TrEMBL record, chain A:
<feature type="transmembrane region" description="Helical">
    <location>
        <begin position="217"/>
        <end position="238"/>
    </location>
</feature>
<feature type="transmembrane region" description="Helical">
    <location>
        <begin position="73"/>
        <end position="99"/>
    </location>
</feature>
<dbReference type="GO" id="GO:0055085">
    <property type="term" value="P:transmembrane transport"/>
</dbReference>
<keyword id="KW-0472">Membrane</keyword>
<feature type="transmembrane region" description="Helical">
    <location>
        <begin position="163"/>
        <end position="183"/>
    </location>
</feature>
<dbReference type="GO" id="GO:0005886">
    <property type="term" value="C:plasma membrane"/>
</dbReference>
<feature type="transmembrane region" description="Helical">
    <location>
        <begin position="12"/>
        <end position="36"/>
    </location>
</feature>
<keyword id="KW-1003">Cell membrane</keyword>
<keyword id="KW-0813">Transport</keyword>
TrEMBL record, chain B:
<keyword id="KW-0547">Nucleotide-binding</keyword>
<dbReference type="GO" id="GO:0015697">
    <property type="term" value="P:quaternary ammonium group transport"/>
</dbReference>
<dbReference type="GO" id="GO:0005524">
    <property type="term" value="F:ATP binding"/>
</dbReference>
<dbReference type="InterPro" id="IPR003439">
    <property type="entry name" value="ABC_transporter-like_ATP-bd"/>
</dbReference>
<dbReference type="InterPro" id="IPR003593">
    <property type="entry name" value="AAA+_ATPase"/>
</dbReference>
<keyword id="KW-0813">Transport</keyword>
<dbReference type="Pfam" id="PF08402">
    <property type="entry name" value="TOBE_2"/>
</dbReference>
<dbReference type="InterPro" id="IPR008995">
    <property type="entry name" value="Mo/tungstate-bd_C_term_dom"/>
</dbReference>
<dbReference type="InterPro" id="IPR050093">
    <property type="entry name" value="ABC_SmlMolc_Importer"/>
</dbReference>
Length: 294, 364
């Protein structure tokens, strides 16, 4: 602190600190605390708030466990978020390897520009774009029929199909960049050493490159999984009647039933259960939190 | 098992830059062969072509008589030891060593046995389960050697593997490498810019400059009979005198310089653009000269190096000449400002075609 004051002066230092504190406290901690506190209170008519019925209770949380439909929606959300994460990995790993070890360094800026251009458009617009692309008489079906790949148009937006496509599209870069960083930090000599010792390409990946990029894969997976499970825009726009996302239930509690208490409880359940799930998966793959922060 | 390596008119081009220029050389099976040259002379490119990571732009490389044109690095009977060793940090030592066997489908128990056997060979019997990061530089070096030996290569390729070690260890590893080579009888191709290493370890040395071979010969011949001015000045030190050849007879000639005319041996390819090369240890300083080749000089500086004494002098024209004498602990060291004669024997001075001087600090 005294070091910062010496370097930037008192005014600048206190401005930095106050802004950071404001952001953390007012925009992150307080709203969450408010929801957290609310999640333990019953949903009451306005007149009863603060009255004798307004006591702390676990009832909101228990609502979830009493509702098989909500539990199943939660499980499917976790399952499909995992699938999204896996698909993202399958797309991002070869691409990251290509970008970090195969592509000429001079062409990297161009390639990254091409990759990031979609991010210039807001998520909601991109989801709408997929809504149009995937519609029954949309461009994708027309293209596939014209190319004689399919005979009849495919109903893309049924089940979780379109949600998967939308989520993968939206979050694949969150997988790409950490893996790219991880592979780039691998000494190319190690890849060559493996090859020189007679290793075929797949074994080099399995024994040398994949283990080295594990922290990158882990942090990318955690990000993609958490973002997917917590996504509301893509499921709202691209889901069908047969696919419900857990965030949609939270939204229904809050905005359709106006029951913010149960909604908050569900939101925290999503956070807690997903964290547990991620921790369990990380244990299985022997990834430490410190690896990810590296 | 060991194999010969033949390079026939091999060239390597990177864009318009020719890194290796028409190199033809035969390395015999079981030989310790060094490529010696300043950085950027193309020696590492040769190594990478032999191991298969770069394809020659022209020419043929044969290992054991077999054309390697269509063989990938993982199909060649070579093992490369990288300059930074490139051990796999996430595997324990024994898995590092056994990696080549794992690739070849050897079962785990045999792999482990072989790894331990090789660890004994490189004098690291207890390291099997250690992590790479737990080893010192010299130990890592040995693991890299063991890892390469595990695949029983016909040819070992070493890319300046000792350059990261400190002096004492480097000298120790020199002897060790040489011993391992003799024991296994594998062909060693060694890349270095350190002439001491090349001379001390090799059966044969190839001196390179600007992508071209300058001389291929035994260490003794390289030092005593350099083929041109580049080899003479890159390998060891030399006093260089400019002048012209005035008379030739048999293998010797008289050479006229600003300091006088001297008799000297006529080197290969000596002609108009020739210079006289004179090793410091062949230049004697004395008050009473006996040899015909003598130059009056004044001592400008004396550097005591321990096992030898380096005496810097200047002649009448201001030309600096360096003389080296072995320190026998008895003889008197001349003082600065002393006026003496520098003398040398005709058969120890050589007239050579002017080679490209060794350029220092060039990018690799």
């Amino acid at each position: 602190m005294s070091d910062m004051i010496r370097r930037y002066g008192f005014t600048l230092t206190s401005t930095f600190c106050l802004l950071t504190a404001f952001w953390l406290l007012v925009l992150v901690i307080l709203p969450n605390l408010y929801l957290f506190e609310n999640s333990f209170r019953p949903y009451l008519p306005v007149v009863d708030i603060g009255g004798p019925k307004d006591v702390y209770t676990l009832k909101n949380y228990l609502t979830f466990f009493d509702s098989p439909i909500h539990i199943s929606v939660f499980i499917w959300t976790v399952v499909y978020s995992s699938i999204v994460t896996f698909i993202c990995f399958v797309i991002a790993y070869p691409l990251a390897y290509y970008l970090s070890k195969v592509a000429h360094p001079r062409s990297l800026p161009t390639l990254f520009l091409i990759l990031t251009i979609p991010l210039w458009v807001s998520e909601i617009m991109r989801s709408f774009a997929w809504f149009i692309i995937l519609s029954l008489k949309g461009p994708l079906n027309i293209l596939l029929i014209d190319a004689s790949v399919i005979e009849k148009p495919i109903r893309w937006m049924t089940g979780f199909r379109s949600v998967l496509i939308g989520l993968v599209y939206t979050y694949v870069l969150f997988m790409l960049f950490p893996i790219f960083n991880a592979i780039q930090s691998l000494d190319t000599n190690q890849i060559e050493a493996a090859e020189d010792l007679g290793s075929p390409w797949w074994r080099t990946h399995w024994r040398v490159i994949l283990p080295h990029s594990k922290p990158g894969i882990a942090s990318g997976s955690v990000m993609v999984f958490m973002l997917s499970a917590g996504s509301i825009l893509v499921p709202t726009l691209l889901a069908s009647t047969s696919s419900r996302w857990f965030t949609e239930i939270i939204q229904q509690w809050m905005f359709e039933s106006n029951d913010w208490n149960t909604g908050s409880a569900y939101a925290f359940l999503l956070l807690i259960l997903c964290t547990l799930f991620v921790t369990a998966v990380m244990r299985t793959f022997r990834v430490k939190l410190s690896d990810i922060a590296r | 098992m060991s194999a010969s390596v033949e390079l026939e008119n091999v060239c390597a081009d990177f864009g318009s830059f020719r890194a290796v220029d028409n190199v033809s050389v035969t390395i015999n099976a079981g030989e310790f062969f060094s490529f010696l040259g300043p950085s950027g002379c193309g020696k590492t490119t040769i190594l990478r072509m032999v191991s298969g990571f770069i394809s020659p732009s022209q020419g043929v490389i044969r290992i054991g008589g077999e054309d390697m044109r269509n063989s990938r690095p993982n199909q060649r009977p070579t093992a490369l030891i990288f300059q930074n060793l490139a051990l796999f940090p996430l595997m324990p030592i024994w898995e590092n060593i056994a990696f080549g066997l794992e690739v070849r489908g050897v079962d785990k128990k045999k792999r482990r046995e072989r790894a331990e056997e090789l660890l004994r060979l490189v004098d690291l019997p207890d390291a099997a389960d250690k992590a790479v990061s737990q080893l010192s530089g010299g130990q890592k070096q040995r693991v890299a050697i063991a890892r390469a030996l595990a695949v029983e290569p016909a040819v070992m390729l070493l890319d300046e593997p000792l350059s990261a070690l400190d002096l004492k260890l480097r000298q120790h590893m020199r002897a060790e490498l040489r011993a391992i080579q003799k024991r296994t009888n594998v062909t060693f191709i060694y890349i270095t810019h350190d002439q001491g290493e090349a001379l001390a370890m090799s059966d044969k040395v190839a001196v390179m400059s600007h992508g071209k071979l300058q001389q291929v010969a035994s260490p003794r011949e390289i030092y005593d009979r350099p083929a041109n001015g580049f080899v003479a000045s890159f390998v060891g030190e030399n006093n260089v005198l400019t002048g012209t050849i005035t008379g030739e007879s048999g293998g010797s000639a008289s050479f006229e310089t600003a300091l006088g005319t001297f008799a000297a041996r006529l080197g290969p390819g000596a002609g108009k653009e020739s210079k006289l090369y004179l090793r410091p240890e062949h230049l004697r300083l004395t008050a009473e000269p006996t040899a015909a080749n003598r130059i009056p000089v004044e001592v400008t500086d004396v550097a005591f190096e321990g096992n030898f004494i380096s005496i810097h002098t200047r002649d009448a024209t201001g030309k600096a000449l360096v003389s080296e004498a072995r320190n026998d602990g008895r003889s008197q060291i001349p003082e600065r400002g002393a006026r003496l004669f520098a003398e040398f024997d005709a058969d120890q001075a050589v007239i050579l075609a002017d080679g490209t001087p060794a350029r220092k600090g060039e990018p690799a």
